[in-house]
């Protein structure tokens, strides 16, 4: 689920096991040396900032609302977490596949990766997304249904 885990002691490992995720304060920032492969926050943050309107999409399909996370998953290297909430509800963690620096290509999402969640038809009025970059900075964006609804 995580691109990489920081070197940690037993207390941090216990935190991971109990909660299934790490809080930002429990993480270590990754090395931000540019690789030219879009593997770090330094490399992907400008792109995700410029394409913030495309972070998610909502689609009505076969009697359901689908929220797609494809864009964020395409740029997942450089991210630790994607969290989302629907209609102001509680935040949920969206799983991010591991980023293999050797085989990573931007836009390539590993086979079998969940790229959308399903909700009742027309139940999605708004979605808020929060990303935690691997430099430990965060960014948040909110979307109204009409702005991200696919035709």
Q: Can you characterise this structure?
A:
The chain is an alpha+beta fold and 151 residues long. The protein has one domain. 19% of the residues lie in helices and 27% in strands. The protein contains four helices and seven strands, in the order H-H-E-E-H-E-E-E-E-E-H. It has a four-stranded antiparallel β-sheet with strand order 4-3-6-7. A three-stranded antiparallel β-sheet has the order 1-2-5, with no helix packed on it. A hairpin with a 4-residue loop joins strand 6 and strand 7. The chain is globular, with a radius of gyration of 16 Å. The two termini are 31 Å apart. The N terminus is likely disordered.
End-to-end separation: 31 Å
Strand content: 25-35%
How many β-strand stretches?
Answer: 7
Tell me the major beta sheet: 4 strands, antiparallel
- What is the mean predicted local confidence, pLDDT? 86
Total of helices: 4
């Amino acid at each position: 689920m995580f691109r990489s885990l920081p070197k940690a002691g037993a207390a941090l490992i216990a935190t991971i096991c109990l909660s299934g995720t790490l809080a930002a304060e429990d993480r270590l920032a990754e090395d931000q040396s540019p690789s030219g492969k879009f593997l770090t926050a330094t490399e992907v943050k400008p792109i995700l900032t410029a394409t913030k309107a495309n972070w998610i999409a909502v689609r009505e399909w076969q009697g359901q609302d689908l929220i797609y996370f494809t864009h964020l998953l395409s740029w997942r290297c450089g991210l630790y977490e994607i969290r989302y909430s629907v209609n102001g509800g509680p935040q949920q963690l969206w799983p991010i596949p591991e980023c293999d620096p050797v085989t990573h290509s931007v836009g390539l999402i590993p086979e079998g990766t969940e790229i959308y969640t399903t909700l009742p038809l027309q139940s999605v009025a708004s979605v808020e997304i929060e990303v935690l970059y691997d430099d430990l900075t965060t960014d948040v964006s909110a979307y109204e249904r009409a702005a991200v609804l696919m035709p």
